[in-house]
Design goal:
single chain, alpha+beta, eight-stranded mixed beta sheet, two-stranded antiparallel sheet, 17 helices, 12 strands, globular
């Protein structure tokens, strides 16, 4: 008998895993022959094997391996650009909030002729500090290839390629000026994204408060803008295991979805669900289409669709489908730390939480609502931590000991903060309540971070060790599932 953790209800898991294998292979191995031909031959072979189920299944996995290899190979070719050796003149538009550094102002720019993205560092002065999203720039500078700089497990070139950057440039103060630029050659998707980013910039002004720390947290939690976060504040949230509330993910979209669901009328349920999904995707564009938010929006869209047909709403199969869609659009997302943490957290919740529910009387929990909430919060927090702890130790070299206590504080606080932020955008006079809640959260987390042993630092597991930890976790889950079914 197959395990119910995956079984026949998740047919997309193996194709998704096969696609990931192909992407990893393609990232490090150059194809010796045209991949289009190999993929076409594999598809034809798959169709011819319709009488042999096992052989056809293997052929399908081979197809997805080749597809992943093909997609990442194509993307890498598009991102590797041979820029001229000397200075060139070009027009660009600013597509990110400016970040002030000691000697420069860092912004992301989009070239209006080619649609390529660059990391741009403007010499810091009065003019560069006034640059905003949507400003057109006329620049003359030298464009450099993406740097091969590495630090530990961090690969800067790969980071830039994941986010679509094809180069970087430093611009002296006298070699740029603001100008009206044409976006005629920019894709419709990029123009739509730019429109929503300018809208986000205006909304950030509406929630701006005098308390810089409070504003930084609100901006990150509600609109995905981390430019105001200081290194000290990031460290406090990292030590206490609360960094996930600063990075937009399923938690934030779930809160927004639940808040908007309060206004759904049963009489027009189908229409209201469609409007909810459209609202969620508008928010995804508003925050700049980060991978973790796109993943969450896809899953929420499937959730809303399944709710209309009264089918199972969330499953490992839904997560696998989302992975296939995200990786098809941007195969380099597989190497994004945010993508990995987001998917592993959701996968662990989908697998581990049902196991914990089997060993607790649901009738008893239903009759004790407070205990049910405590048990649910504990189960989800522990499950998510099991999913991401090995990756956090690998990438950030630490493990937060007080993550469970932290979640009991920041998850309810995040719900209030997000709901109040949506309200403050309409009624700015309520901002003082928002400042109080965020300040209270920051104060508590700062005190928790100061406790000796709040975080275990200096961890340096190898990739093999991380893989073995996940094998142990998966084995324990399978054993628990079998023990339950054997009772």
């Amino acid at each position: 008998m197959k395990s119910r953790l995956i079984g026949n209800k998740s047919p997309l898991v193996l194709p998704a895993c096969s696609m990931m294998v192909g992407i990893v292979v393609g990232a490090y191995v150059t194809a010796p022959v045209p991949l289009w031909g190999l993929l076409a031959a594999a598809v034809i072979l798959t169709l011819l094997l319709w009488r042999w189920a096992l052989a056809q299944s293997v052929a399908v996995m081979v197809c997805f391996v080749l597809l992943g290899w093909l997609l990442v190979d194509r993307q890498q070719r598009l991102l590797r650009v041979d820029w001229p050796e000397g200075e060139v003149s070009y027009e660009a538009v600013v597509v990110s909030e400016p970040v002030e550094k000691p000697k420069t102002v860092a912004v992301d720019i989009l070239l209006t002729e080619s649609g390529r993205r660059l990391k741009c560092y403007l010499h810091k002065d009065g003019r560069s500090c006034s640059v905003r999203i949507g400003d057109g720039l006329r620049i003359r500078s030298r464009i450099r290839q993406n740097s091969d700089w590495r630090r530990g497990t961090f690969d800067y070139r790969r980071y830039l390629e994941i986010h679509g950057f094809t180069g970087s440039t430093f611009v002296a103060g006298w070699k740029w000026q603001k100008a009206e630029v044409s976006l005629a050659h920019v894709s419709r998707l990029e123009r739509t994204r730019l429109y929503f980013l300018k809208l986000r910039s205006r909304l950030l002004e509406r929630i701006r408060v005098d308390d810089e720390a409070a504003y930084a947290v609100v901006a990150a939690m509600t609109l995905g803008d981390k430019s105001a976060l200081t290194q000290e504040l990031k460290e406090v949230y990292a030590v206490t295991g609360a960094s996930h509330v600063l990075a937009l993910s399923g938690l934030h979209l779930g809160i927004i979805y639940g808040f908007l669901s309060l206004f759904v009328f049963s009489r027009w349920r189908s229409l209201m669900q469609v409007l909810l999904v459209l609202s969620i995707w508008a928010f995804v564009f508003l925050v700049g289409l980060p991978t973790s938010v796109v993943r969450s929006a896809l899953m929420l869209s499937v959730y809303a669709l399944c709710s209309l047909g009264h089918r199972e709403r969330m499953s490992v199969n839904t997560l696998a489908f989302t992975a296939i869609v995200v990786l098809t659009v941007n195969p380099q997302s597989l190497f994004d730390v945010g993508f990995q943490l987001s998917f592993m957290a959701v996968l662990a919740i989908l697998v581990v939480v049902p196991l914990t529910d089997r060993f607790v009387s649901q009738a008893y929990l239903q009759s004790h609502r407070c205990l049910k909430w405590l048990w649910g919060m504990t189960a989800v927090s522990v499950a998510a931590q099991l999913g991401v702890a090995p990756l956090i130790a690998y990438y950030f070299w630490r493990f937060s000991v007080c993550f469970l206590l932290t979640n009991f504080i920041v998850v309810p606080a995040a719900t209030l903060i997000i709901m109040l932020s949506l309200t403050v955008m309409v009624v700015p006079s309520l901002a003082y309540i928002l400042i109080y809640i965020v300040g209270w959260q920051n104060t508590i987390l700062t005190k928790m971070a100061a406790i000796p042993g709040a975080s275990i630092d200096g961890l340096h597991p190898s990739l093999l060790q991380v893989a073995m930890v996940y094998v142990v976790i998966a084995s324990v889950c399978l054993l628990a599932d079998r023990c339950y079914r054997g009772r």
